[in-house]
Design a protein that fits this description.
The chain starts with a helix and ends with a strand. It has a domain of 72 residues: OB fold (Dihydrolipoamide Acetyltransferase, E2P) (Beta Barrel). It is 19% helix and 41% strand. The chain has 103 residues and is of the alpha+beta class. The protein is elongated and about 75 Å long.
């Protein structure tokens, strides 16, 4: 009887741990558009356009330009794809996926 209870407890704990660690593979990436206002090496500071959702978190976002083969300059309008997470620093940081110039 003790073995049955032990097996049931282990099974319940295992299921609970699996359920807590389950992450959705269906996460959507998020985009914002803005203007490059500073360049330093392979990083840049982008000011999101007014009305962009990310503006509620920060008015300046630090991004890594090394994920792109394009050449950027101050004043370029860009669209940035990121995971949706905004780190609370100043300027804010994101987990960037891609960046493209826009007109």
């Amino acid at each position: 009887m003790k073995k049955v209870i032990l097996i049931i407890c282990i099974a319940l704990l295992t299921l609970g741990m699996v359920a807590c660690n389950k992450q959705s593979d269906e996460t959507e990436n998020v985009f914002f558009e803005g203007t490059i206002i500073e360049l330093e090496g392979s990083s840049a500071i982008v000011e999101p356009f007014e009305g962009q959702d990310i503006r509620s978190s920060a008015d300046k976002i630090s991004i890594d330009l090394s994920v792109s083969n394009d050449t950027f300059k101050i004043g370029d309008k860009v669209e940035v794809e990121y995971t949706g997470e905004v780190m609370e620093s100043y300027p804010a940081q994101i987990n960037m996926i891609s960046i493209e110039k826009i007109n």
